[in-house]
Amino acid sequence: MYIYGASGHGRVIIDLIESYEKIHGIFDDNPEKKEILGYPVLGPIPKNYVFKSSLFIAIGDNATRKRLALELSSRVRFANIIHDSAIFSKRAFLGSGCVVMEGAIIKVNCTLGDQVIINTGASVDHDCLIGDYVHIAPQATLCGGITVGEGSLIGANAIILPGVKIGKWCTIGAGSIVHQDIPDGHKWIGNKLILDPAPLIIVK
Q: pTM value?
């Protein structure tokens, strides 16, 4: 597997896979990144680079991950990573380029889109629909029947109550309790909607 990203999320991914997966190369656009966890960083991906294996985009920022996935989708297959300690229902569905980290739970009839991060100990209950480029942070809890739109971030230890619909490119603050639907591009902090919406990010 190749890895794109040599910062914090890259270290997490290397630590997850190196015991069972050969790492063919690690790329990063930052010229100051020379090494990560003992592996050399090869720099940016050359335009005509021929991949010998799948690639994982190890970048936590949702908009950046989307941009890179769209740029590279015609050149390489994206890997999925599910940690052995995670519980992933045989009746759940997974896109490409996703990671489900230690202790996470994905229940029956859930659908994860492409390039989704389900972080450590997060719980996604039955019949949830998670859009592309979403990040569910550590220990977040999504009850049943929730929809999370493209690019949204669910903060650590947030709780989303059953049936709530979260729009695209929303931000849910850490520790929040969400009890109502949230429009595209908005923020929710604590137990209330922030009326001044965050800019809606559209990446073509």
A: 0.93
